[in-house]
Amino acid sequence: MIEESLRYPLNSDDRVATHLIGGLLLVLSILVLPAFVVQGYLVRVLRSAAGGETEAPSFTGWGGLFVDGLKFLLVNLVVGLVIAIPFVVVSVVVFGGAAAIGDAGGETSVAALSLVGILLFAVATLFAVVVSYFLPAMFTNFAVEGRLGAAFDLSTVKSIAFTTDYLVAVLLAVVLGGVINSIGSLFAIVLVGIPILFYGQVVTYYLFGRAYAEGRSAAGLPPATVVSTPPSTRTTDRSGRV
């Protein structure tokens, strides 16, 4: 799977143009709108990988990329809110309690509250890690079905995530993507690393898509019916329709 993931972004006739465009869009992401196109492209990568394709998609059908990126942002916002709520609640409890205790005095109470705060923040952090583990399955299920609600189909997502195949692929994505992005970051200041950063994102999302596909198979679920993509792309669904 490592070799497949490293070759995937390069398995296209226009790989140079794709990486240059991807790198340029990453630089222009500060303008917001280009970021949607990049995210839409990554959604297309998830869809392609889940469908078993070995060739990375091109930057075509820009309107579709933008829409997919916008939908992907909404999914991320909901997930981010779910992760943030426990931290907000813990912060309110801890700092509110500290203010009340500060008015009343008592070093023992302050120490006890500090300990409780540390434990609560640890629980919130653990919750964030657990949610993050499910993200590849959530993102890919959304990409495959093309519906926002598919990202929150907990029954399907849990079935896929609770498989060894999914776990291995996700860990590989985190490690391999981290290494590539670290290398890209070192050279980003001279711009050479920007396409490498884009390459690292594609590798990571390819592995996320494969984690979904492998986990789905291991869970005994029927093969996913990949939603059709715009005719201007090379990505096809399992029925062979463009």
From TrEMBL:
UniProt KW keywords: Membrane, Transmembrane, Transmembrane helix
Signal peptide from the UniProt entry: none
InterPro entries (alphabetical): DUF4013 (IPR025098)
Record field: transmembrane: 20-43, 73-101, 113-139, 160-180, 186-208
Name of the molecule in the record: DUF4013 domain-containing protein
Organism: Halorarum halophilum
